[in-house]
């Protein structure tokens, strides 16, 4: 009867699943309801109905259906699996465990139900319950693997307890990691797991290498190094089928114990088998130095390794070990010529290998420049016009890297031009390179870019033209090397800094990055969201970036990987999976996504900021949850060479991105933008603009106090300019402003403060006096035009663009407010006239200052242009001009969707 019911349910549920697969959830629900009324309470059909309800966006109805079904204690695996999928999508994993627990209690001798119950606990990460169930399964079904499932669960409990104790004792600087290699004091769970292993060894149950690694990891974590070495030396050591893995265990354990003699002996044995094992060379040198054995112990080891190499073999290990050894011991014998000979031999042999500098980088810091310079100078190319081979080019690149990374000194324009000339002269060598490979000379361009960034950083981040030149060099390289990921990421960072979000986003889409790389690099692009005007076409695309994060799948993927590791008995992978999940949950992208989502949700839910208290409370809460300490404790992408390089060489920590994003700290800047957007939304939807001149508790207002009046750029002052004449647009006025700015250029911070004050004045007056608001817009427009006329000598390009955004948003919001509040046609006409004048000014400005990439990069750039170049802001300016020309209709269209959503909310 039970089989007949299951068959009937399966037949009736098949059309429902077909509807769900086709996306027709409404039909699936209707069909399921009809089938239930027709044929009784079929569990399969009811589970399918719950799945359709969940996918249709009715989670409450789906949970109600599932809870009612769970009370009947279903015991069909297919029904339980469907219910588990729905609960999993609803993030209700504890209920999945309750389902299988009830089924296991109903059928206590069914091993399949027991396995599903245990795996549901693994996915929910409940190690205490896992240990209890695994022991029950071992006693009932007499399978050794269930015993070791219990041991692994006890180990996880011990690690969980240690993390909780560490969090209580001190605030960690980095997220807690779950690693089998960290030395931890033993606790009650570790001791229990050790005793369980002793029993398993006595009963002869340890017959697998993965089980042995679990035991060795446990002994290593509890600092029982002698016991672990005894296990490897005993009969269980034969389970290590690969000799190199066994030696690796012995080296790590002996090193942790301090038995340097055994470390040296094991390394010698490993090097006799593989003379290119760099880990063994490092451990051997460390052991020799610590034992103070000197050259008599090291040189025979190297000579023997070199003697075993064939004449055609190009293994770098022995030769690099010689350099590393002499560099390590150089402080004790500074006059020894052995280091010079070893470094010279290595560079002569392997200077034409692309990895030569990367191999030497770990020890070049200990080698004086007097030794390095003559060796590298012999491999540099001084005449780029001559015919250059690929081997010579690679030697030159390695030499250039050594010179650049040896210090923080700017190498200068002459050195940069030499590298660019060499790149052009050697492009023919890359004729056989496939589109997915780098050009052979790409490293030269990257070195030029790094030097320009270093020059910009040394100048206090004021010489924006250096960033423009760097962008030109990157564009030159990306034109030939379309797959150069490092160049694309660097160019995107620079575009974001200069405010060219469209170009940064276009580069991002061309990278065709995978899901995991969103986690690594997505936070770079998410921070440009606030700087875009409302209704910008890139805003929804950037919001997609917030949702395209591997973090959103961590809670699904990591538990699935853990269950597979238990199923196949690969216990050594379980700590790695846990560490991976921990890193993603504490990543920068996760925090950026949380902050942006929090800000967007708050602004949508409360578009009219009517009470100052609400804004203050929200800002304080943002500061508490997203303080700079929280950012410093987040994981960043240590695998991206470009971000790591910026962090190490230009003091741009990848967590704060101090220079290449928007301020002294991501959290502070995000809070400022939140307040700024709150002002805009309040103006657009009729709310009162909060008075930010009163300082909330524990918070410094981001908008400064109003400075002295702005110096006029014509005979009329900004305050008395009429609505029909809101800004200077004639060529004479522009020339006057330019000459005055060149004679006494104001500081960038002063200009920014003035713009912010005028912008705030527009917002304040727009709520009470339309005429005064129009006059304030005129003053703001005059100041912005003056700032753009002074580019780039007085105002950084990024500041000017932010100021232009202030003017654009003020005009847009004032136009919308005029329409909503029925201020009359005169106000709307004045705003439209101001928009047209700004559009004309920007168009004329772009035509008067054309700067191409070739001019920026080329070696034949006119003299004196280095300090006056500015990027063609083409797409950026056209977007602003189009927005201004559209006027009131554009404002209404941009905000109609948001307004409709707010009314529904």
Automatic annotation (TrEMBL):
Domain of life from the UniProt record: Eukaryota
Amino acid composition bias (Polar residues), ranges on this chain: 728-738
Chain intervals for the UniProt region annotation (Disordered): 163-184, 696-751
Composition bias, Pro residues: 699-710
GO cellular component: NatB complex
UniProt feature, compositional bias: Low complexity: 163-177, 711-720, 739-751
Entry's family note: Belongs to the MDM20/NAA25 family.
Name this polypeptide is given: Uncharacterized protein
Species per Swiss-Prot/TrEMBL record: Caulochytrium protostelioides
């Amino acid at each position: 009867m039970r089989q007949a019911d299951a068959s009937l349910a399966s037949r009736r549920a098949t059309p429902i699943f077909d509807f769900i697969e086709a996306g027709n959830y409404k039909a699936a629900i209707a069909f399921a309801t009809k089938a239930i009324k027709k044929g009784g309470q079929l569990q399969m059909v009811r589970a399918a109905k719950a799945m359709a309800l969940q996918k249709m966006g009715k989670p409450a109805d789906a949970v109600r259906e599932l809870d009612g079904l769970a009370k009947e204690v279903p015991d069909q695996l297919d029904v339980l699996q469907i219910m588990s999928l729905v609960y999993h999508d609803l993030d209700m994993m504890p209920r999945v465990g309750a389902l299988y627990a009830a089924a296991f209690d109903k059928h206590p001798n069914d091993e399949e139900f027991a396995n599903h119950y245990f795996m549901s606990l693994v996915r929910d990460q409940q190690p205490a319950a896992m240990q209890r169930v695994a022991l029950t399964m071992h006693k009932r079904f007499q399978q050794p693997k269930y015993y070791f499932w219990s041991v692994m669960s006890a180990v996880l409990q011990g690690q969980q307890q240690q993390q909780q104790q560490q969090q209580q004792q001190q605030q960690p600087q980095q997220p807690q990691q779950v690693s089998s290699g960290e030395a931890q004091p033993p606790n009650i769970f570790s001791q229990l797991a050790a005793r369980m292993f002793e029993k398993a060894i006595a009963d002869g149950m340890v017959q697998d290498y993965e089980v042995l690694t679990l035991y060795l990891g446990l002994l290593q974590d509890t600092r029982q190094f002698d016991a672990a070495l005894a296990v490897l030396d005993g009969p269980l050591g034969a389970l290590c089928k690969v000799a190199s893995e066994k030696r690796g265990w012995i080296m790590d354990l002996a090193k942790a114990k301090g038995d340097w003699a055994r470390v040296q002996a094991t390394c010698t044995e490993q090097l006799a088998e593989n003379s290119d094992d760099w880990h063994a060379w490092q451990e051997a040198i460390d052991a020799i130095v610590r034992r103070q054995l000197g050259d008599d112990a090291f040189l025979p080891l190297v000579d023997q390794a070199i003697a075993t190499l064939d004449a055609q073999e190009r293994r770098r290990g022995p030769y690099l070990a010689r350099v590393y050894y002499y560099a390590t011991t150089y402080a004790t014998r500074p006059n020894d010529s052995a280091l010079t000979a070893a470094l010279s031999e290595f560079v002569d042999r392997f200077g034409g290998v692309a990895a030569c500098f990367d191999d030497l980088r770990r020890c070049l810091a200990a080698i004086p420049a007097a030794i390095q310079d003559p060796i590298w100078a012999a491999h540099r190319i001084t005449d780029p016009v001559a015919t250059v081979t690929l081997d010579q080019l690679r030697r030159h690149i390695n030499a250039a890297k050594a010179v650049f990374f040896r210090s923080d000194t700017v190498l200068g324009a002459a050195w940069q031009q030499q590298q660019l000339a060499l790149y052009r002269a050697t492009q023919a060598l890359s004729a056989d390179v496939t589109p997915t490979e780098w050009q052979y000379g790409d490293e030269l361009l990257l070195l030029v870019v790094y030097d320009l960034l270093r020059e910009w950083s040394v100048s206090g981040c004021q010489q924006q033209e250096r960033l423009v030149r760097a962008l030109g060099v990157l564009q030159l390289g990306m034109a030939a090397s379309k797959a150069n990921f490092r160049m694309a990421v660097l160019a995107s960072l620079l575009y974001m800094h200069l405010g060219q979000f469209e170009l940064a986003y276009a580069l991002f889409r061309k990278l065709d990055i995978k899901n995991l790389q969103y986690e690594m690099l997505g936070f770079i692009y998410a921070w440009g969201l606030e700087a875009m005007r409302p209704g910008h076409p890139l805003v929804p695309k950037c919001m997609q970036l917030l949702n395209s994060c591997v973090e959103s799948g961590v809670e699904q993927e990591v538990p699935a990987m853990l269950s597979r590791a238990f199923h196949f008995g690969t216990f050594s992978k379980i700590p790695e999976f846990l560490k991976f999940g921990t890193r993603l949950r504490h990543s920068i992208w996760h925090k950026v996504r949380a902050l942006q989502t929090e800000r967007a949700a708050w602004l949508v839910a409360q578009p009219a900021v009517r009470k100052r208290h609400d804004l203050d409370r929200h800002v304080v809460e943002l500061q508490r949850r997203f303080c700079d300490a929280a950012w410093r404790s987040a994981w960043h992408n240590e695998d991206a060479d470009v971000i790591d390089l910026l962090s190490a060489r230009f003091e741009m920590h990848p967590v704060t991105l101090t220079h290449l994003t928007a301020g002294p700290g991501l959290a502070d800047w995000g809070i400022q933008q939140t307040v700024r957007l709150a002002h805009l939304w309040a103006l657009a939807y009729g709310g009162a603009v909060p008075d930010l001149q009163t300082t909330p508790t524990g918070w410094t207002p981001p908008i400064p106090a109003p400075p002295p009046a702005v110096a006029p750029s014509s005979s009329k002052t900004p305050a008395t300019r009429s609505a029909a004449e809101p800004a200077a647009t004639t060529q004479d006025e522009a020339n006057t402003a330019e000459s005055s700015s060149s004679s006494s250029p104001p500081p960038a911070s002063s200009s920014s403060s003035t713009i912010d004050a005028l912008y705030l004045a527009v917002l304040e007056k727009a709520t009470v006096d339309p005429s005064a608001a129009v006059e304030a817009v005129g003053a703001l427009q005059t100041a912005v035009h003056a700032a753009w006329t002074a580019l780039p000598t007085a105002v950084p390009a990024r500041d000017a663009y932010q100021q232009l955004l202030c003017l654009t948003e003020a005009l847009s919001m004032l136009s919308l407010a005029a329409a909503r509040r029925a201020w009359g046609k005169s106000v709307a006409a004045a705003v439209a006239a101001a928009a047209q004048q700004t559009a004309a000014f920007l168009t004329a400005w772009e035509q008067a200052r054309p700067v191409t990439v070739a001019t920026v990069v080329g070696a034949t750039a006119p003299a004196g242009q280095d300090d006056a170049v500015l990027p063609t802001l083409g797409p950026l300016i056209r977007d602003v001009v189009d927005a201004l020309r559209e006027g009131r209709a554009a404002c209404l269209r941009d905000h109609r969707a948001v307004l409709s959503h707010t009314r529904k909310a």
